[in-house]
Amino acid sequence: MADTGFRRSLYVGVDIRGYGAAPEQRQQKWQEILLRSLDRAAAAMGLDRARWARQQQGDAELAILPHDEPEPMIVDGFTRRLEAELRQHNEDVLPWARLRLRMAVHHGVVVNGPNGYPCRDAVVVSRLLDSKPLRGVMAQWPEANLAVMLSELVYRSVVEAGHTSLRTDQFRRLAVREKEFKGYGWLWLPGCSDSIDMYARPIVPRWDSGGVQARPYVVRADEVSEVVVRGRHRATAQRGYIGG
Q1: Residue 54: inside a domain, yes or no?
Q2: Would 118 be classed as within a structural domain?
Q3: What is the CATH number of the domain that holds 127?
Q4: Using one digit for the tens of pLDDT, what is the confidence trace for 6-36?
Q5: For residues 74 and 154, what is the distance between their CA atoms, to the nearest angstrom?
Q6: How far is it, in rounded angstroms, from Cα 69 to Cα 43?
């Protein structure tokens, strides 16, 4: 049997919002700033990005971290530092030139393949990163430089278990239904979560358009999330809009 390098590691995916609509010179500049921000954030936390297995796609990066890179530091310190790097850059540019990122984090099985990682957990992080809720939140909170989606596993074992400085009330649990994936992700907006109400606005699907008349909808019963609001559990249906 071929050696596939079977192991369990942390997946970290990042993606630039609005990259496809940007002119080529801005795309190139964003690519440079993306890599610089990731490198600086890692260096500030004593992490060695040279040891990360990285798949780069211009506007995105999927990284597989070595087993000895501490997960709590990635979820907490590295993510906060990345947001700080983006904020510093965005303070000096016009609004349309701001670099804003989506980020997804998941822990699971890694299997090496001839053209990537042919395993379910690689799909999970990709679906979380590309999910409608994560895309929608960037439109709903334009002040956010970075929107992070943790998988259920990472949230429960790292944040809820108390291994970071993060509080559970800084997160919002969202139903994710993306292609074949159905599950939940935990949304966090670094740099904004202490100054905004995470439940004040609906999450808008990415295919909404200002030119399309919208009508409100409520997701089906199987998409209802159990969330924590001010220390109390309650069932809530996430609201959004669909084109009319």
Answers
A1: yes
A2: yes
A3: 3.30.70.1230
A4: 999 999 999 999 999 999 999 999 999 999 9
A5: 11
A6: 12
Question: What's the mean per-residue pLDDT of the chain?
Answer: 84
Among 186, 79, 188, 191, smallest CA distance to 145 is for 191
56: its two tokens: 């780069």
Q: Please tell me the distance from the alpha carbon of residue 29 to that of residue 185, in angstroms, as a whole number.
A: 30
Q: Is residue 231 a part of any domain in this protein?
A: no
Q: Residue 177 in 3-state DSSP?
A: strand
Neighbours of 127 (CB within 10 A): 24
Buried b / exposed e across 148-179, counting CB within 10 Å, b at 16+? bbbbbebbeebbbeeebebeeebbbbbbbbbe
Residue 33: which of 86, 83, 71 has the closest Cα? 86
How many residues make up the chain in this entry? Answer: 244
Question: What is the reported pLDDT for 2?
Answer: 65
pLDDT per residue over 163-178, tens digit each? 999 999 999 999 999 8
Residue 211 resides in a domain? no
The residues that bridge with 113 in the sheet, in sequence order, are 116
Domains in the chain: how many in total? 1
Extended strands (E) in 6-46 = 7-16
* Chain center to CA of 126: 10
**Which residues span the domain enclosing 152?**
7-199
Tokens of 217: 């909808």
Contacts of 61 (CB under 8 A, 6+ apart): 13, 14, 34, 35, 38, 54, 55
